Structure formats: C-alpha cells, structure tokens
Amino acid sequence: VSVIETNIDDANPQILGYTMERLLESGALDVTLTPIFMKKNRPGTMLTVIASPGDQEALAQLILSETSTLGLRIYSAQRRVLAREITEVATEHGNVRIKHTASGAFAPEYDDCRRIARETALPLKEIIAAANLAYQKTNR
Predict the structure, then answer these.
(1) 35, 59 Cβ separation under 8 angstroms
(2) Residues of 30-58 as b/e, b for ≥16 C-beta within 10 angstroms?
(3) Which of 36, 75, 88, 127 has the most CB atoms less than 10 A away?
C-alpha cells in the first residue's frame, strides 16, 4: 500500500472532516486524523491515508486541493489483513451483517447497526450488542 501523510496546524476541523469523507469516497482504504503538537508547541493534526498504489496520485492531489498543506510524505508499506467472510444474522430489530475470520474474530457491520438504530430510535450500543449475541448464538 501507499501511505500519504501530512501535518496541518491551520485547518478548520470541518475542512478536515470533509477531506476525510472525500478521501474515503475516492477510494482510500483508510483515513485517520491524529492530534499532534508541532513546532513552537502548536496543536495540529496529522492526516494519514492508506491507499492502493494506483490511487496514490489522485488522493494526494485531493489532499493538496482540499487542505492548506504545502507538502506530503508518501511511502510504501506492507499491509496484512485476515481473510474475512460475511454472515447475516437476525436480531429482534432487523438483520445485521457480521464480518468474521477463521480465527474467530467478528464484528457487526457498523452501517447496518447505525441504520437500525436510526429506524428504531434505539441506542446504537443496544443494536451492536444484539448483533453480537445473535452471531454468538448461531456460531457456537
């Protein structure tokens, strides 16, 4: 993968949030915003993007156009991911997709849980707990 980073100390947080959304919509594999202290003890944000090498240039240009940064660090990195499968489980509130691995790790799909929480007006944490319980019951 390609890692694209920059440190920004003069950006409106709304701009950074919008930039993060645009990067993910444009194919970034992951985007993080990390609070940092820069020279002269100025608070700032490190923007880090993990990208497929083929998307590197387009994502770098997006960062340069959407933020106030004057430069980027770009380097190659190795990435390892576990193979995942998706299983759908039924909860009392609706169906939720669960990502799971052969090693036993699993997690409910956030977007499904978020949608159900909004539709039912229940707390998100209750929907996540119901999805976890449903998966555990069907995979013992």
Answers:
(1) no
(2) ebebeeeeeeeeeebbebbbbbeeebbee
(3) 127
Q: CB–CB of 62/19 below 8 Å? A: yes
What is the β-pairing status of strands 85-91 and 30-37? unpaired
Entry pTM: 0.77
Reported as a pLDDT band with limits 50, 70 and 90, residue 139 is confident
Residues 6+ positions from 9 with CB-CB distance below 8 Å:
38, 42, 43, 44, 45
- In 3D space, the residue among 103, 104, 129, 107 whose CA is nearest the CA of residue 116 turns out to be 129
Strands 43-51 and 94-100, how do they pair? unpaired
How wide is the angle at C-alpha 37 spanned by C-alphas 75 and 80, nearest 5°?
35
Encoded tokens for 136: 């555990």
